[in-house]
Amino acid sequence: MRTLGLIGGGLMATALIKGLFKQGYPAAQIYGSDPDPASRQRLEELGVKTFASNQTMLTALSQNEAAGVILAVKPQVVPEALSGLEYPDLPLLSIVAGYELAALEALLPSGTKVLRAMPNTPALIGAGITALSPGSNCGAPEQAWAEQILSSLGQVVSVPEKLMNAVTGLSGSGPGYVYLFIEALIDGGVMAGLPRALARELAVATVLGSARMVAETKEHPAVLRDMVTSPGGTTMAGVFALEQAGFAGQVMQAVLAATERAQALGERK
């Protein structure tokens, strides 16, 4: 396999490396750069060759048969990470939240093949879903390369970049909404008299099972909801309470608010 470079050694980079290992990618073929000694140590413990300087890593990468570079840093340090680099003729796959293709391309040599991806936190356990948008300089080979890399984190879907903020509002931020819902289910169980450990076990299994039902049956969620809401029954009483509180509308508002925030963050750069 061709050598792969990573700029940044945080949690998502680590998750990506571990996912690649499961696909059979050899640690010796992965180079990582990060100015933080603790981040480099985490990568070294995985068997990855590390560099304190991005340029030094890229120079070493260009001396091998390389596949490409993954950018996995915080949005605020992107200019510092990329500006002034002698960047080799390799595709760059960014998993930086909110950073647009045009802004990335402006920091790199003209014609650089740049792709933008938006993973979510379940990627840390290989259960994520990542949206991918290729830049105008990319073709089928770069798209296929990026999809192969990102599949180590879970599912991959291709979207036009104009939808990336909406993706952020739904799947990027969505785990936070789901965690809040699970927490509320647990607390509701405790209020109803269940021991907290049992309430947690029931809530987690219920959410997991319900999500699998939607995924595997391909039914509309409303159809599945009708299956469990008997006339005058307990579930109908609970659904009625949720609707009185505007539950569905509030979830939709959360997605829209996160989408608007993603757009605002992108405009500030």
Description:
The chain is α/β, with parallel strands linked by helices. It folds into 2 domains: 3-162, NAD(P)-binding Rossmann-like Domain (Rossmann fold), CATH 3.40.50.720; 172-266, Orthogonal Bundle (ProC C-terminal domain-like fold), CATH 1.10.3730. It has helices spanning 11-22, 37-45, 54-62, 78-82, 101-106, 140-150, 164-172, 174-191, 196-217, 221-228, 234-244, 247-267; strands at residues 3-7, 30-33, 49-51, 66-71, 92-94, 114-118, 128-134, 154-158. The chain has an 8-stranded mixed beta sheet with strand order 3-2-1-4-5-6-7-8, with helices on both faces. Helix 2 links the parallel strand 2 (30-33) and strand 3 (49-51). Helix 7 packs across helix 12 (247-267) and helix 8 packs across helix 9. The longest helix is centred in the C-terminal third of the chain and has 22 residues, at 196-217. The two termini are 36 Å apart. 33% of the residues are buried.
